[in-house]
Specification:
Order of helices and strands: HHEHHEHHEHHEHHEHHHH
Largest sheet: 5 strands, parallel
Structural class: alpha/beta
Strand content: 5-15%
Low-confidence stretches: 5-17, 250-254
Mean pLDDT: 88
Number of helices: 14
Helix content: 40-55%
CATH class: Alpha Beta
Number of strands: 5
CATH topology: Rossmann fold
Length: 254
């Protein structure tokens, strides 16, 4: 048994060695949140070392399709990177992604899958299925705005996460949905983290698209999920003042 496990580990070493440089190259492109109202509730919990409660809602790319370990999804990577960047931080993340879900479907689940968890921060990933199934993206701007208002009314900070830069998506009229997401974020003064731009810049910088997307040409690879989650964590931390963003030692007895 041990011999078999060792052989498997040795066989996977080239893939593991390749994955890390891919993630680091992707992260090196950098991506910040768009300018918007500060994440006041999130910042307060970060300053207090938590507990920071996050809900990630969206479709299969939030759920982490093709990943068997929840820690390897983008929400799982977001959690681990926040904890790495701020040692001692207490953070919990609820993954409320659902395969094949749409924007109206997300909104219909808010009560049960978001509000019930009383989050400080909601990451709302939207748009992919509404485009690939040829629904009108123009009409969805109002639905996105309505969803943001519901999330804000519950007292949570909100960050929008847009579509992925992937072959299957690029074959659609994706730009309309991108514009709708950006316009809704602007109207409601909430930050947008552009996963699309993060991945596009990495590809433009020399990474093959297949390094960040899976065999289906739509969902992320393990490296793609890791890059998205870690880059988002860094973007959230960057919203805090520099002196508060730096790792700090906790006082005794805390």
């Amino acid at each position: 048994m041990r011999t078999g496990l060792l052989a498997l580990a040795l066989a996977l070493l080239p893939q593991l060695a390749l994955a890390q440089p891919v993630v680091e190259q992707c992260l090196a492109t950098g991506q910040r949140l768009t300018d918007a109202a500060p994440l006041s509730r999130t910042s307060a919990q970060l300053r207090a070392f938590g507990p920071l409660r996050i809900v990630a809602i969206g479709s299969s790319s939030t759920r982490g399709l093709w990943q068997s370990d929840p820690a390897s999804t983008y929400p799982g990577m977001l959690k681990s990177e926040l904890e790495r960047l701020k040692p001692g931080l207490q953070v919990s993340i609820v993954n409320s992604g659902r395969n094949a879900d749409t924007i109206p479907g997300n909104v219909a689940r808010f009560e049960r899958d978001v509000f019930a968890h009383k989050p400080d921060l909601v990451i709302w990933q939207i748009g992919t299925n509404d485009v690939t199934w040829l629904q009108s993206s123009d009409r969805l701007t109002g639905r996105i705005v309505d969803g943001i208002r519901q999330l804000k009314a519950a007292g949570a900070d909100v960050v929008l996460l847009d579509q992925q830069y992937a072959p299957a998506l690029l074959a659609t009229n994706y730009s309309k949905m991108q514009a709708s997401i950006a316009e809704a974020a602007r109207r409601e003064n909430v930050p947008l983290f552009s996963r699309f731009e993060l991945m596009r810049r990495a590809v433009d910088g020399g990474l093959p698209m297949t390094a960040l997307t899976s065999w289906d040409g739509l969902h992320s690879s393990a490296a793609g999920y890791e890059c998205t989650g870690r880059a988002l964590a860094r973007a959230i931390m960057a919203t805090m003042p520099a002196k508060e963003n730096a790792p700090a030692k906790r006082q005794r007895g805390r």
